[in-house]
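LOG
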Amino acid sequence: MRTPILTLAVIAALAPAARAAVSHEPFDAILKKHVKRGRVDYEGIKRESRAALDGYVKALGKARLAGASRNEKLAFYLNAYNALVIKSVVDRLPVESVMKVPGFFKRHRHTVAGRRVTLDELEHGIIRPTFKDARVHFALVCAARSCPPLRAAAFHAGSVDGVLDRLAKSFVNSWSGVRIQGARVRVSQIFNWFADDFRKSAGSVGRFLARYHEKHAGLLKRTRRFEHLPYDWSLNKQ
């Protein structure tokens, strides 16, 4: 009878180590200090918060997510992507556009929860297929002016769902997201590149946009083909 008791005791002792939690507070503090109206003070981060950013990224690499809830994982990966984009820019300053950095998305590897991944692998190989939530496109910010504005706060499991809804509504109603002039409808390239994600979410891109647009839901539902706005890859710096 003693063996099962000992086994349970061992399991109980090891249980806290099964998952290494990551505090997102250091990243939250960096964002609050260095992000205003969606624009990033990369030079300020390099000058004042480099150690904190490096420490947070190191913690992301060592994290273990076994046993984490869906929203814990979602918040973790959204923060990881944005933190790694910021670090990748800070590491290469001065930078005018990430598109001028060879391999920025496709070649340079980072450690996330014990895995070596590129930014593209993190987005398209983990985040999109794992969560199947089109709203992540308004949370993942690739350091370009035409990206959705970077939120000046980290994501947290308890609020991530509501925050994603707010980010979707904000971007769809912004000049960068949707422009309607009479019957002419122009939308961000995001709705072209990831059209399948929005169709899976709402049946069509137009129906997805109508879900969040404040004034022209009817027009957007009826629209089958959209014009797509030019994408400005200039750095989203202050």
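LOG (cont.) second protein
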Amino acid sequence: MNEMWTSVIDFMWIAFFFVLATMIKSRIGFFRSFIVPTAIIAGFLGLLVGPEVLNLVKFDLERLGNMVYHLMAIGFIALSLKERSKKKDAEYFNSGVFIVSNYAIQGVVGFSITLFLTYTFMPNLFAPLGLLLPLGYGQGPGQAYSIGIQWEELGLTGGGNLGLTIAAFGFLWATIVGVIIVNYLIRTGKINMLEAEKNGERTMITEEISPDEIPLSDAHDKLTFQIAIIGVIYLISYFTIYNVAGYLESLGTFGQTFAQLLWGFHFLVGSLYAIVFRIILNKLKAKGLALHNTPNNYLLQRIAGSSFDFMITASIAAISFFALKSYWIPIILITTIGGFVTIYHSYFVSKLIYRNHQIENFLGFYGMGTGTISTGMALLKAVDPKFKTNVSENLVMGSAVAVLFGIPLMVILNIPVFGIESHQPIMFVYTLLLLIAYLGFLYAVLYFLTRKQRGLAKQKISR
């Protein structure tokens, strides 16, 4: 096949799965009464007929991964460019601590399991294997694969593929279990589905569009201008990451680890630039320097929605399974216990730190904590299809705060490597104790901030 067609063919297959999923959702009674995002159905159709299962469609999983990577950034840049009412930064800060607390508790659970197995039933097990849980569940296949590959040199056979396997189980927890949770919450009345018809089908609220919202004739189409702005911001983001990552890589192994992390958070860099652009634009408008064409909320929302739909479909279709072989016992234990712990942890922390939209935040952060931000957006979109809540912003801006709070965690995760290289297994114990201590610190931060914010809220009410 001509090389110039390969990526386009992959995109067309994703489009085909989405159209087919739409038809299935509208025709099959089960899907009409059971709330399942169309993008998730499309993704599993792609996974079923793709190279990992039936092998009927031989699309390239790496290219699908690249599609997910870039669509994520495009969607979040579009959301960040939207005009919005002012929100309290405290929710963003709390969200960032929340994200890292999910990583920490997953690290405690995963590492505890493999340490127990290593010193009881499986003495030849690679003890740090359990630390791939927060990487595969919390940060996605990219980070889990990268760290797994590095650990192969330390004795973890097939470490990269094991990282992908754990991430694949995370996607299953995020999508299959996540959809079950969504429907349970709807049927028990904990989510009020104002946009659902009697048969469970979703309908979109009609938006008021002004006559000049989408002009039919102009020097250029207004949609073109929105895409152009997104493209420019993404270009600036790329050059920023390229130069900063290049400097970090020159600092050695530790710098290389953070350079990889920076590339993984490309969507966050783009979102920050988009927010800065919006702030500057608003200041210019306040001074009477309004531009002829400006970012348009309606069109930006459509771009973001389309990007996330295709991103979710591609991310599920790109799941790669690895033959578990001798690791199937620890992998099943780690991923299953880790999945249940993430559900309960995400639910109770959401109830603790958010005053509004607690269930929506729970679904978003659970999906993010078991898959990637794309699966978090998928579950959120099932109950908030037009992103009317601020949960999507909590996910994005919370990730910025998570980078800072995640630095100590990345340091802790590297301690077992030093223990293996220096033949000091006591380092495993130190690692587990540090993970528990850091988790306690994060809980203390959340408790203190939440108590302070609620105290301030009560003072305002009393006035």
